[in-house]
Write a structure and sequence with these properties.
Layout lengths: L3 E6 L3 H13 L2 E6 L2 H11 L3 E5 L7 H9 L6 E5 L4 H9 L4 E4 L4 H15 L9 E4 L2 E4 L4 E4 L2 E3 L3 H11 L6 E2 H9 L8 H14 L6 E6 L3 E6 L4
Parallel strand pairs: 1-2, 1-3, 3-4, 4-5
Antiparallel strand pairs: 6-7, 7-8, 8-9, 10-12, 11-12
Helix pairs in contact: 1-5, 2-3, 6-7, 6-8
Amino acid sequence: MLKGKILVVDDNVNICDLLRMYLEKEDFTVSQAHNGLDAIKIFEEEKPDLLLLDIMLPGLDGWQVCREIRKTSDVPIIMVTAKDETFDKVLGLELGADDYITKPFDTKEVVARVKAVLRRTAGKTVSDMREVRYDKLIINRTNYEMKVNGVHVDTPPKELELIYHLASNPDRVFTRDQLLDEVWGFDYYGDSRTVDVHIKRLRDKLKGVSPEWELCTIWSVGYKFETHGNK
């Protein structure tokens, strides 16, 4: 029984063929693209269930491909790169990547991560994507929209998922590692400043909106969505 469609995007044909072989052994259907433009074209035509997306691509790079796909889709994306720099990891997460793998990688680990990401995203329906409302604030995960004072505020996917997660659990303190695990969906070892970056951007958008709630820092611990009035 086929488990889903995977689009592997890498300019190295040998890597694509190797990943295809291992994924097909696990009953996945696999397509390949070797540059950014073809990746977007094949994505639009075939609507895969997950992308394994290399960063260093001819034409459009992986960052640009991820950004373009995130305009219309929340399909899971696992970024793959030969680089091992914190900046790259943070940028990938900010653009909406679901996981991150650094070359050289173990092919069996890649397959395991693909399965894990698909398990997390499987079975989601519109009813799962609830809406949370507070004074002058609406966060809707059905259409990935945040409204402040009735006005739509441009919010990238991971920013919206982060504020939704916090607001869905009012007055609960989350550590940075918990947020990376529960919002980004995987254990991210290393510099967790990507959470701080997202929180800062959200604070800029939500500063002074209402006296009934606020996005609070709990020093040396993490963050919480604190309520001061009735929800």
